[in-house]
Amino acid sequence: MEKHEIEDLESPRRPRQELRRQPDAPVSKVTTESEDEVAKTILQSIPPDSQITNVRFEGPTIALYTKNPKFALTELTYYLSSLSKTLKKRFVIRTDTSVRIAEDATRQAVAKLLPKDVQVSAVFCDDATGEVVLEVSRPEAIDPAMIVQIAQSTGWIAHTRRSPHIPSTSINTIHSTLKSSARERSDFLQKLGTRLFRSPLVVGNGYDRTEEPSSPRPQGWSTNKEEVMLFCLGGVKQVGRSCFIVVTPESKIMLDCGINPGEPSGLDAYPRLDWLNFNFDDLDAVVIGHAHIDHQGFLPALFKFGYRGPVYCTEPTLPLMTLLQMDSVKIAHSNGTYLPYEARDVHEVIKRTITLPYGKPTDISPDITVTLNNAGHIMGSSTVHLNISGAHNILYSGDYKYARTQLLDSAVATYPRVETLITESTYGNSSDVMPDQQFVYRNFTDSINKVLIEGGKVLIPVPAVGRAQEIMLVMAKEMSDGRLVECPIYIEGMISEASAIHMSYAHYLGADVRRSVSQGINPFQSEYFTVISGGKREEVLNDENPAIVMATSGMLEGGPSVEYFKELAPSPKNKIIFVSYQINGTLGRRVLDGNVSEVSMMDKSGKLKVVPVRCQTQKIDGFSGHSDFNQIMNFVAKVKPKRVLVNHGERTKSENVASAIYSRLKIRSGVPDNREIVRLR
Length: 681
Fold this sequence. Notes:
The protein is α/β, with parallel strands linked by helices. It folds into 4 domains: 35-95, 2-Layer Sandwich (GMP Synthetase, Chain A, domain 3), CATH 3.30.300; 101-163, K homology (KH) domain (GMP Synthetase, Chain A, domain 3); 186-200 and 218-431 and 626-679, Ribonuclease Z/Hydroxyacylglutathione hydrolase-like (Metallo-beta-lactamase, Chain A); 437-619, Rossmann fold (3-Layer(aba) Sandwich), CATH 3.40.50.10890. The strands form 8 sheets. It has an 8-stranded mixed β-sheet with strand order 1-33-12-13-14-15-16-17. A hairpin with a 5-residue loop joins strand 28 and strand 29. The longest helix is centred in the middle third of the chain and has 19 residues, at 317-335.
């Protein structure tokens, strides 16, 4: 490592010190009030009119069950605000099961209470939480007073979500899974609450350092009371399989759990969990930054292998994760490829996921509070801020865009304190500077027009989540303004459902899009778009007229885009335009780099055929949801960390970012390796 890099980086290639507790050493504890003691304190501090029937720890909150929801949602909130500051805990109000009416009756009652211009598309009652989710045409029309009315009339506390323009299979899967597992989830939340609010262990002199011979894997997890360790299990000096574990004296928190799309299987495809003496019972939580496969694609496998703890992410990330995970299962079954999990494991993820809004600090272990903030990468993407006992703050950037786009607002970069920043470096070369947006749109439009005018077809392979929606907004605007040659724009794959999920959670989109949606405009529907399925694919391909096809996946690794590639690649009049990052090893990267003149692929009958690659190819920079080099530097300068670890980039790009941070900003920086341990404190 270079001189500017971290000096206390520990590696399995070098002897390191292990922390062990002496068998007879005294252990001191900080007293934490029991659930009964907390309940007693609360009940003594609130009016009898609250009609509280039960107080218990549930996940990261204290749940108060009431028979008087109107009082609880109005008057009681003032008392709880004061108690929250005193007890340093968050509260959630739930209704007693005795006051909840049946789901059909709730649907009828809600329909009568809502304004006549608000249409209800779905009503989902969650028995585990006493909450009812209302999918409505105009959620902004339902004010807090209406929520109180619904609670008083039905016994359910309402949450609203915008109705999607088409039904979402993923959202329906989540609803059905939650409904069928209500008792199991209720027990899970109780057990999690007890564990989370457990008495924290304070390590005194009962730990000593003992030398351990060099070993290819760490032999323990222990730390002393001062140490915070970072275990790098994937995603450094590469793009793909992002996964880290933060270890403190109290906690073990996993950040992301992805796969490497450029690797079919084996040690290079998945996080290096094999490197640890890994006991899933020791893991307090998994935090997922966003829904892309390279950050969450291995998550269901954790549950297959025995993990039963919580997963934290933002509200839209759960349905987007479900969409992509289920699609991975479908593709694996269709292609006969290996995937380390099944659909049932995806359902286990759903059962144990706790969604959080942006900007809400939440305890996820006795000594760690997490806050998720907008990362500007895709809808629901978040930076992950971990406050460890108020003494050390880690900001894990995940993938972020430190600039506004058509779809999203810029990543949040204002934090009171950050000791360690873990930043991505996908576009980390000094020359990786994105052009002006108007230039990008003009270049994109001109590139497509040349092909269409000459009678060819344009294939745009896109990730279903993020880039697809951005490109749809741009093409609809360019075509309506007359700059893009008018022709059919075919949308295939998961794009339509992903767009429906975007509409359901439109309040997570950028300010301009939110404004349009609130005015009744669906930005993902246009007269120029034609949604097709596999059965109509041949009609599109056999039509000799020029057309644009948007299809998943974005790296030509399975999905409809590969089927279009087989038919369009042999003709030089067609063109493939790449608008997203192409990971090393993927077919998209090989085609883009010009490293292949032909590709062996399976035809419809299952026979191997050779596909010549004669089509035009082009990468349009500027649509990426990642920060370019200048944006990375500006983000780091704004955050002002004391040290920086660089990940999620090819080795040369990560090293360039680390070097620039040190030389320009005078901040200690480094690039760890996979299977390396970093002592953060």
